[in-house]
């Protein structure tokens, strides 16, 4: 595996379900990110991790809970979501927070909340 | 407020033409600028980054930065139908270490 891998690719969940999104990067990067992409809106930063430490939480509701057990893995735990949370969730990594090399994105998880 | 503005398009150009995509941003002290390409149903992919005023060329792509006027452009020479995608501009506005993304410009290259 190379690059940034996200699973699952698609997820349909009810508002009372609990699910988790997984991201794994094989690039040796030290920073990982969760972004939300909704139609007609810019990419919205959710969380930033640098060397497994959360460095930014961009006013995200508590129904989204991130976890970074090591510098290669990132999870987004979901519970009691709302229909407006339906979106494409993208994981990204970079060599370091604040570097100038840009991001490598995973393929994303298309989430539908019913 | 940190803002990155892009015309949503679509920008339609004929095959072989030059496509010009523009992006303006809100803070004069911004230092780092990125262009990403996103095909429909796919994730963004980094095309180019630029940090200094002037032009930076990479194959058919040229990024142009003008910090005084607060804009950054992406030129695509000899446009191909495979260039049809949404192009996202991202800027590290002010002293932020995290880039702010624009909404993207949809480009359609027709044969």
Largest sheet of chain B: 6 strands, mixed
Secondary structure class of chain A reads mainly beta
- Total number of beta strands of chain B: 11
Sheet with most strands of chain A: 7 strands, mixed
Task: Write the element-wise H/E pattern of chain B from the N-terminal end onward.
Answer: EEEEEEEEEEE
Q: Ranges of chain A with pLDDT <50 over ≥5 residues?
A: none
Biggest interface and residues each: A-B, 19 and 21 residues
Strand content of chain A: over 45%
Low-pLDDT residue intervals, each spanning 5 or more residues of chain B: none
Classify the oligomer.
heterodimer
Explain the overall architecture.
- The complex is a heterodimer of chains A (114) and B (111).
- Chain A is mainly β.
- Helices cover 0% and strands 56% of the residues of chain A.
- Chain A contains no helices and 11 strands.
- Chain A has strands at 4-7, 10-13, 18-25, 31-37, 44-50, 53-57, 64-70, 73-79, 87-94, 104-105, 109-113.
- In chain A, strands 2, 4, 5, 6, 9, 10 and 11 form a 7-stranded mixed beta sheet that branches.
- In chain A, strand 7 and strand 8 (73-79) form a beta hairpin.
- Chain B has 111 residues and is mainly beta.
- Helix content of chain B is 0%, strand content 53%.
- Chain B has no helices and 11 strands.
- Chain B has strands spanning 4-5, 11-14, 19-25, 32-38, 45-50, 54-58, 61-66, 71-76, 85-92, 100-101, 105-110.
- In chain B, strands 2, 4, 5, 9, 10 and 11 form a 6-stranded mixed beta sheet that branches. Chain B has a 5-stranded antiparallel beta sheet with strand order 1-3-8-7-6, with no helix packed on it.
- In chain B, strand 9 and strand 10 form a beta hairpin.
- Chain B is globular.
- The model of chain B has no long low-confidence stretch (mean pLDDT 94).
Question: What is the topology?
Answer:
The complex is a heterodimer of chains A (114) and B (111).
Chain A: E1 4-7, E2 10-13, E3 18-25, E4 31-37, E5 44-50, E6 53-57, E7 64-70, E8 73-79, E9 87-94, E10 104-105, E11 109-113
Parallel strand pairs in A: 2-11
Antiparallel strand pairs in A: 1-3, 3-8, 4-5, 4-9, 5-6, 7-8, 9-10, 9-11
Chain B: E1 4-5, E2 11-14, E3 19-25, E4 32-38, E5 45-50, E6 54-58, E7 61-66, E8 71-76, E9 85-92, E10 100-101, E11 105-110
Parallel strand pairs in B: 2-11
Antiparallel strand pairs in B: 1-3, 3-8, 4-5, 4-9, 6-7, 7-8, 9-10, 9-11
